[in-house]
Amino acid sequence: MHIDKHLDVIAACRFCFMCRHLDPVGNVTFQESDTPRGRALILDTIRMKNESLKNRDFIATIYRCALSGANRCHCVSHYDEVGLVLAARKDIVEAGLAPENVKALAEKLSRATFTVRGKGNVLYYGDHPELYSGCKTLSGGDPGKALETLGFAGDSQKVFDRFKSAVTASKCTTLIVAEPSAYDFLKDKLDGIKVVHCSEHLLSGKWKARPVRKAFYLESDFLKNYDGNPAASRELLARCGYSLMPFGTNSEESYSVGEGAVVFDELDPELCEKLCRRVYDLADNLKTALFITPSRYVKATLAKYNSQIRIVSLEEAVAQRKDRK
Q1: The dihedral of CA 271, 61, 59, 79: what is its sign?
Q2: Closest C-alpha among 131, 134, 135, 136 to residue 323
Q3: Could you give the dihedral angle defined by the CA atoms of residues 211, 215, 221 and 226, in that order, rounded to the nearest 10 degrees?
């Protein structure tokens, strides 16, 4: 079983309470099973008794995980609890035990195709090509990250192969990626092609000084907890005149409403709404506060469950102040 590669995590996490306050799902369900300790105990049971893998409650718990990475990032020993959950999902899929809603979502994701348009050596993959004059554009679905996250490794590879073929055929030397989940997935997968997050590319430009505007910045789970929390996004917003304020009860907790699980809102909308309501409840005034997020998933999901929230993507925030020097 794939979880056997993570015995150190199971042994360490199953009796540890230190990071339970950082699990997004545990903070809204208040169930011990929805914490790294609870999941490790479940997977220890599965490891010792293979028949336990068929337990539908166990499977549901593994797919309830938001995969924020906050627990791993702030663990004093950085035990890879995210890797353990992903391994468990692969075991579930390979055993033919994936829930029907998971299989249906995977089937939809597996149909993704990709199209390149325009001219140039730089290829942009995102929703705001107007910010990237002189770049080719790549459109299509998820490049395989969501399928990988659901445990469908083979299908993920097939979708990525189609994505890679489109990128290779474009003859680009640089790929600019907007969505943090896609950036995390692609950053080390395209030999000979430089992959950069959109904030890195936009930061290289010069921007006119603007009046200061206060905003709450909802950090991406991928950028913060998976990819070393690069400063480019925050520096870019500062250059555009945004003064970013801390949000929530502490700087370690995730407020990205399931972004780490990529398709969390499609997987469990009821639970995702609870994650969103925690964000709404922590906000002083949704009608007046401005929120900025690097993730279109986070923007769309938070706006879905309360239309009063004023939230824009990183690229939209930049576009609103796009006059360059």
Answers
A1: positive
A2: 131
A3: 30
Token pair belonging to 165: 């073929």
Nearest residue to 248 (alpha-carbon basis) of 22, 20, 17, 18: 22
Average pLDDT of the chain? Answer: 95
Backbone angles phi, psi at 98, to 5 degrees: -65, 135
Residues with Cβ < 8 Å from 318, sequence gap 6 or more?
131, 202, 236, 237, 240
Residues 6 or more apart in contact with residue 51 via CB below 8 angstroms: none
Q: Is 170 exposed, middle or buried (0-12, 13-18, 19+ CB in 10 A)?
A: buried
Query: What are the structure tokens assigned to 29, written together?
Result: 């369900």
| CA distances for 235 relative to 132, 138, 205, angstroms | 18, 26, 12
Put residue 214 in one of left, alpha, beta given phi > 0 → left and psi -120 to 50 → alpha.
Answer: beta
Identity of residue 40: A
Pairing, β 114-117 against β 213-217 = unpaired
Dist. CA 156–CA 171, nearest whole Å: 23
Encoding tokens for residue 315? Answer: 């690229």
User: Which DSSP state fits 224?
Assistant: I
pLDDT 10s digits, 101-146: 999 999 999 999 999 999 999 999 999 999 999 999 999 999 999 9
Residue 297 — left, alpha, or beta (φ > 0 → left; ψ -120 to 50 → alpha)?
alpha
| Share in percent of the chain as helix, strand, coil (round to 5) | 50, 10, 35
DSSP H helical ranges for the chain: 7-13, 26-29, 36-48, 56-64, 70-74, 81-94, 100-109, 145-150, 153-170, 180-186, 198-203, 221, 232-239, 264-267, 269-282, 296-305, 314-319
At residue 50 the predicted structure's pLDDT band, cuts being 50, 70 and 90, is confident
pTM beyond 0.90: the answer is yes
Amino acid identity at 20 = R
